[in-house]
Design brief:
single chain; alpha/beta; TIM Barrel; 8-stranded parallel beta barrel; 46% helix
Length: 285
């Protein structure tokens, strides 16, 4: 499975037509949503539709994730019981405030995985509050399951009592801090969504700003945004040199039966190798 994080598109979990259309999307990650796009009256229906969609996992060209409800919503336990099954590649946890919340979720996941004889499922926490921004480092390093973190700008601004604008001054510090904290613990950072679907120039500029801050990709709400985002977040020379080094080193290590190894003093394992190979293959294409 490719480990590219250029684009993660949210697909409403209660819409059968959108779930079907998602099979053909070129986003790196398709994320079935149980949270913001699904009203409370539709949560149960959405869980059932997502369960059915996961059974047809092989028909999706992208990695398939699910966004649950938040740790404080009182709904996440029901979400996990329904969606943890064969076919799911990862889970996005919204509105994570601290590492304690993730530890509780991880315990539930471990029990469900053991029951169904599944390999550990990856996690992507979403930072959407002042507390979450303050605790980004501990959140990003809370579990080996974590491959990336997401910045959720709208709920962050709401938490801060700041009105949304396309380039909000009040979000600049948080937006810059999150990829730094992610880099420090060896995970990736995905930037917030761009809400104005008609402002293509604004999206391009926002992608450039995000990449300059250290984000490797962006969350998306509409398929028309995918190609623009992929063009901006195409791997650069430094990333490709790193990818080649990781691929060569890891492949030599596995031939010796060792697996995990180090590159430039940093530990790398199969997850790093998959992302490096995906970057390398993308550039060659």
């Amino acid at each position: 499975m490719a480990r590219l994080f250029r684009s993660l598109i949210f697909v409403p979990g209660n819409n059968p037509r959108f779930l079907e259309k998602a099979k053909t999307l070129s986003a790196d990650i398709v994320c079935f949503d149980l949270e913001d796009s699904v009203p409370d009256s539709e949560k149960k229906n959405a869980r059932n539709l997502i369960k059915d969609a996961l059974k047809t996992r092989s028909q999706y060209t992208s990695e398939v994730y699910v966004r649950t409800n938040s740790p404080t919503s009182g709904k996440i336990q029901d979400d996990l019981k329904e969606i943890v099954q064969k076919g799911i590649d990862g889970i996005v946890i919204p509105k994570v405030n601290n590492a304690i919340e993730l530890k509780k979720i991880e315990k539930t996941l471990a029990l469900l995985e053991k029951k169904q004889k599944l390999q550990p499922i990856g996690l992507i926490p979403s930072i959407e509050s002042a507390e979450g921004v303050a605790n980004t480092h501990e959140i990003a390093s809370a579990s080996k399951r974590i491959s990336a973190i997401v910045f959720g700008v709208f709920d962050f601004l709401n938490d801060m009592g700041i009105e949304y604008t396309k380039q909000p001054e009040g979000a600049k510090f948080a937006r810059a801090k999150i990829p730094i904290e992610a880099k420090a613990v060896g995970v990736y950072a995905l930037d917030a969504i761009w809400q104005d679907l008609k402002d293509e120039k604004g999206l391009i500029e926002d992608c450039k700003i995000g990449k300059s801050l250290g984000y490797v990709g962006k969350t998306i709400i509409h398929p028309d945004q995918i190609l623009i985002i992929h063009k901006t977040f195409h791997p650069n020379k430094t990333e490709l040199e790193w990818a080649e080094k990781v691929c060569n080193t890891y492949e030599k290590s596995t031939k010796k039966g060792k697996g995990a190894t180090t590159v430039d003093g940093k530990m790398i394992d199969e997850v790093h190798y998959k992302r490096a190979k995906a970057l390398f293959d993308l550039a060659n294409r």
